[in-house]
From TrEMBL:
<dbReference type="GO" id="GO:0005886">
    <property type="term" value="C:plasma membrane"/>
</dbReference>
<protein>
    <recommendedName>
        <fullName>Guanidinium exporter</fullName>
    </recommendedName>
</protein>
<dbReference type="Pfam" id="PF00893">
    <property type="entry name" value="Multi_Drug_Res"/>
</dbReference>
<feature type="transmembrane region" description="Helical">
    <location>
        <begin position="33"/>
        <end position="50"/>
    </location>
</feature>
<comment type="similarity">
    <text>Belongs to the drug/metabolite transporter (DMT) superfamily. Small multidrug resistance (SMR) (TC 2.A.7.1) family. Gdx/SugE subfamily.</text>
</comment>
<dbReference type="InterPro" id="IPR000390">
    <property type="entry name" value="Small_drug/metabolite_transptr"/>
</dbReference>
<feature type="transmembrane region" description="Helical">
    <location>
        <begin position="57"/>
        <end position="78"/>
    </location>
</feature>
<dbReference type="GO" id="GO:0022857">
    <property type="term" value="F:transmembrane transporter activity"/>
</dbReference>
<dbReference type="GO" id="GO:1990961">
    <property type="term" value="P:xenobiotic detoxification by transmembrane export across the plasma membrane"/>
</dbReference>
<keyword id="KW-1003">Cell membrane</keyword>
<keyword id="KW-1133">Transmembrane helix</keyword>
<keyword id="KW-0614">Plasmid</keyword>
<feature type="transmembrane region" description="Helical">
    <location>
        <begin position="84"/>
        <end position="100"/>
    </location>
</feature>
<keyword id="KW-0472">Membrane</keyword>
<keyword id="KW-0813">Transport</keyword>
<keyword id="KW-0812">Transmembrane</keyword>
<dbReference type="InterPro" id="IPR037185">
    <property type="entry name" value="EmrE-like"/>
</dbReference>
Length: 104
């Protein structure tokens, strides 16, 4: 169950990062509210996952899901650049996540 909590926490991290961008520095109330709610859910689920998963594993997986997910959301939804070096960086993050998961 901890892994499910962790993955869902990572997905909510993507939501809050994306809506934080859309909030334009917390000047748009709706996006600001979604950001804060998603943060609370994300941190809450991360804390549940950390009851049984090692700190390093849980935190690394959580931030990795958020980082790569926000990267993809930025490209797909916001038209941000998808340069070869940025894609390579995302691939390296995913590779690190796979190694972390298989080693725990």
């Amino acid at each position: 169950m901890a892994w499910i909590y962790l993955v869902v926490a990572g997905l909510f991290e993507i939501v809050w990062a994306f809506t934080m961008k859309l909030s334009e520095g917390f000047t748009k109330l709706g996006y600001s509210a979604i950001t804060l709610i998603a943060m609370v859910i994300s941190f809450g689920l991360l804390s549940l996952a950390m009851r049984t998963l090692p700190l390093g594993t849980a935190y690394t997986i959580w931030t990795g899901i958020g980082a790569v997910g926000a990267f993809v959301a930025g490209i797909v939804a916001l038209g941000e650049a998808a340069s070869p070096m940025r894609i390579l960086a995302a691939v390296l993050i995913v590779t690190g996540l796979v190694i972390m998961k298989t080693s725990s």
